[in-house]
Design a protein that fits this description.
- Helix 1 crosses helix 2.
- This protein has a single domain, classed as Homeodomain-like (Arc Repressor Mutant, subunit A), CATH 1.10.10.
- It is built from 5 helices and no strands.
- By secondary structure, the protein is an all-alpha fold.
- The model has no long low-confidence stretch (mean pLDDT about 85).
- The longest helix is centred in the last third of the chain and has 13 residues.
Length: about 80
């Protein structure tokens, strides 16, 4: 869901690498080469980046923003 800040196994900071990883992948660089360029040598850290699924954009579609607007409009009528 949210980009992991640290590797669950070794504790290395990985949260700042996600955007750079996506940029390298978009440029056509393979997963392994992209992780090598980012300095991810341990397989546990590589796993954190490679297997992350960014669901936050999908979840934002279901925010209750519309419901909050209706509540505000109902409050104004009173």
């Amino acid at each position: 869901m949210i980009i992991p800040i640290r590797c669950f196994s070794c504790g290395k900071v990985t949260g700042d690498l996600w955007e750079r990883y996506l940029k390298l992948i978009d440029e056509g660089i393979t997963d392994g080469d992209a992780m090598d360029q980012l300095g991810l040598k341990r397989y546990c850290c590589r796993r954190m980046i490679m297997t992350h699924v960014d669901l936050i954009e999908k979840l934002l579609k279901y925010t209750p923003d519309g419901r909050n607007e209706k509540k505000l409009q109902l409050g104004k009528d009173d």
